[in-house]
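Subject: Re: docking follow-up (LLMBWK7S)

Dear J.,

Thanks for your patience while I sorted out the input files. As discussed at Tuesday's group meeting, I've set up the holo structure prediction with LLMBWK7S included as the bound ligand rather than trying to dock it afterwards. The sequence and the ligand SMILES I used are pasted below, so you can double-check that they match what you have on your end before we go further.
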Amino acid sequence: MLTETQKQIRDVARQFAQKELAPGAAERDRAVVFPEAALKAMGRLGLMGIMIDEAHGGAGADYVAFAQAVTEIAAADGACSTVMQVHNGLVCMGIARYASTAQKERFLVPLARGEALGCFCLTEPEAGSDAAAIRTTARRRGNHFVLNGAKQFITSGSSSDTAIVFAVTDPAAGKKGLTAFIVPTTTPGYQVARIEHTMGQRSTDHCHIVFEDCEVPADHMLGEEGEGLRIALSNLEGGRIGVAAQSLGMARAAYEAALRYARERRTFGKPIIEHQAVAFRLADMATALDAAELMTWRAATLRDAGAPCLKEASMAKLFASEAAERICNDAIQTLGGYGYLEDFPVERIYRDVRVCTIYEGTSDIQRLVISRQIAG
Ligand SMILES: CC(C)(COP(=O)(O)OP(=O)(O)OC[C@H]1O[C@@H](n2cnc3c(N)ncnc32)[C@H](O)[C@@H]1OP(=O)(O)O)[C@@H](O)C(=O)NCCC(=O)NCCSC(=O)CCS(=O)O
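The structure tokens for the complex came back this morning:
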């Protein structure tokens, strides 16, 4: 059962998503337009700092509410939901959990109010799944650190105001030699080298970022020196609940489109939903959606209780993202040739959902994390 606050946040997100986001999603995808105004409006509604306490400009809610809101936004516009979930789940929560009081005042408050946007710079051209293999360096120079290196696939990399950046401060220390920094993207040396052309989620900017002698004050360090990998991985544990929720939202939208179509479209003298092949396909889609929702809810509930949920978050992400891809594929199959046209939303949703089995840890990485947990 959802609490009153969780229901309220879900309903605010649903109403906004259906009224303000859904009508323009196809056009934003076609024209490759970043949903800047929509994100600002989401900030005013409290959807950009859902889990941040009210004293720091947030809505003071929890992971269950976050998952509900992300699902609703994703059901209307997958691209927008990625920006929102990275901002909430990885950036705001990373700062909320590890920042000093002064850092929270300066960086978290505008982020949680939606007046500033955040990005999470971990992945590199040669360090994706193996997060500990990053090569970007941060060398101390007096009261500053100087960052050099490159980051890849950074969501909102060119639209963000604030980046959490992971870099090597002690190459000899291996996994204990990584450190996190809060970097304003206006800092000289933060360079957007390229915005990638992607299969889906085209209205978001997935960027290649280069750090060239990017100097940040030492007091921009997030957490302790050497704590970077732990911060990255614990953040990703929560972020994966967000990706599960996104997958769920996009899959629900595709399923609902397929169900509507199957009730209206007639072949051989009756609605196609009365053909068992179609009805059974829809039954499988509905069942997988329910399972994905329950797994996402379980992981979010555990996280809210402060209980370990590494396995459950990875399971939710793995199952929901793979189920979502199948559901979107089945939705296209149900619509037949029309499903392949841009005139119907399912082809866009299919493209948008594809990345959910890849980012914030591929399906293979989720299986690795789960298998380590069950091995004990
Ligand atoms: C594949 C991996 C799981 C391998 O991890 P490692 O074996 O290299 O790391 P560990 O030794 O397991 O852990 C290092 C350190 O961190 C602590 N840790 C690990 N997990 C957690 C957690 N959930 N909470 C808290 N602490 C944690 C662990 O105890 C160790 O600390 P100590 O040494 O004990 O002190 C890993 O590399 C991995 O998950 N890879 C996937 C990376 C990934 O998901 N990348 C995606 C990047 S973000 C993105 O794609 C989207 C961003 S966006 O859209 O712009």
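A couple of observations from a first look. The domain at 229-375 is CATH 1.20.140.10 (Butyryl-CoA Dehydrogenase, subunit A; domain 3). DSSP finds ten helices and ten strands in the chain.

Let me know if you'd like me to rerun anything.

Best regards,
T.
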